[in-house]
Automatic annotation (TrEMBL):
Organism: Rubroshorea leprosula
The protein's name: Exostosin GT47 domain-containing protein
Keyword line: Glycosyltransferase, Golgi apparatus, Signal-anchor, Transferase, Transmembrane
Subcellular location: Golgi apparatus membrane
Cellular component, GO, one term: Golgi membrane
Length: 382
């Protein structure tokens, strides 16, 4: 793990604190990372910051000598940087600029010997928020990107072959009760922002169809402590939880639903799901195509037909994998992210060796990080 300058890690926490009226501290490493849905960058950083004796059971080993490293993790707090000034009046962030941070980060990386050595192929960079590092992502596209979806990435920037889908950090209390439907009086629950852009426009249409349905509780609400408590109550007392697309195909409430044992109803045709190599989401989720979900009466009728026995089977299946959706579980999300990253190593070595024997043509034609092209332009024998 790179020992980044603090302006890319703890310094961002300080800027977030200042933008909300807090005071500056001399030692920024004493600051706590603020809670939000993209806390994955904090949990991964904290894991690698521990000594190896504290990381028993991890699928990867941290080394201090870069010559011994197969992979290089770049622990930038890219998602937190996005929201430093969010919702604050101009000037409250004391001049902080996320785009400037992004540019400075890439300039710093490009100055590092080990980043230049293999054109960044053996680097791992977290960009959990779909808008994180948006200005510079094309300059770091060779790296393994840890992303929540590909909604804002071009095919030459991100793919399932090269990158790793990570989960949002769930923001509501996990359900601690037993299996069953008796205490879950609501058929279908959703609480979130009704009005989103792009693919998330489906939310307003679903509101119009569902808000007057019996046993359906669908409410507009933004992120706040009070709304999180209300969402916890709603998910813990509902059989099904609606998971429509947001501005991009993924959204945090899918993972809130899973830890609530509330069966996810996924209406997001382009969604990518974390850890799908080991988790079959069909065992505990209901997938509905967007065009079908928008037919009046279709969704509610579909869910009413699912018997209690099947719902309980869904709950038990969620419980079996629930640890994978908890970044604080010793054998949960953090370890699985690292395991997924380690599985990219053969491909990374392939790309490094492939890069070294390609003719540099200077062409403006984009290279494809997802290996969809076989035009290698190798050097022929004379």
């Amino acid at each position: 793990m790179y020992d980044l300058p603090h302006k890319f890690t703890y310094g961002i926490i300080q800027q977030h604190r200042l933008a909300r009226g807090g005071s500056a501290v001399a030692d920024v490493t004493t600051l706590n990372y603020p809670g939000h849905q993209h806390m994955h960058e904090w949990f991964l950083f904290s894991d690698l910051a521990r000594s190896e004796s504290e990381r028993v059971g991890s699928p990867i080993t941290k080394v201090n000598d870069p010559e011994e490293a197969d992979l290089f993790y770049v622990p930038v707090f890219s998602s937190l940087s996005l929201i430093v000034n969010a919702g604050r009046p101009p000037g409250s962030g004391l001049g902080y600029n996320d785009e400037e941070m992004q540019e400075a980060l890439v300039e710093w990386l490009e100055g590092q010997e080990y980043c230049r050595r293999n054109n960044g192929w053996d680097h791992v960079i977290i960009a959990g928020d779909p808008n994180a590092l948006y200005r510079v992502v094309n300059r770091v596209k060779n790296a393994v990107l840890l992303v929540s979806d590909f909604g804002r990435l071009w095919p030459v920037q991100g793919s399932l072959v090269k990158d790793v889908i990570i989960l949002y950090s769930h923001r509501i209390s996990a359900y601690t009760g037993g299996f069953g439907v008796q205490e879950r009086k609501t058929l279908l629950f959703f609480m979130g922002n009704r009005y989103r852009k792009e693919g998330g426009k489906i939310r307003d249409l679903l509101f119009q169809i569902l808000e007057n349905e019996k046993d359906v509780l669908i409410k507009h609400g933004t992120q706040s402590r009070e709304n999180r408590r209300a969402a916890s109550r709603g998910m813990h007392t509902s059989k099904f939880c609606l998971n429509p697309a947001g501005d991009t195909p993924s959204a945090c409430r899918l993972f809130d639903a899973i830890v609530s044992l509330c069966v996810p109803v996924i209406v997001s045709d382009s969604i990518e799901l974390p850890f799908e190599g080991i988790i079959d989401y069909r065992k505990f989720s209901v997938f509905v195509e967007t065009v079908a979900a928008l037919k009046p009466g279709y969704l509610v009728l579909l869910l009413r037909k699912i018997p209690a026995k099947k719902i309980i089977a869904f709950q038990k299946a969620m419980d079996e994998v629930r640890r994978y959706y908890d970044y604080t579980d010793p054998n949960g999300a953090v370890n699985e992210v690292w395991r997924q990253v380690s599985q990219k190593l053969p491909l990374i070595k392939l790309m490094i060796n492939r890069d070294r024997r390609l003719v540099k043509t200077g062409s403006s034609e984009p290279t494809c990080s997802c290996l969809c092209s076989n035009r290698t332009r190798i050097i022929g024998s004379l």
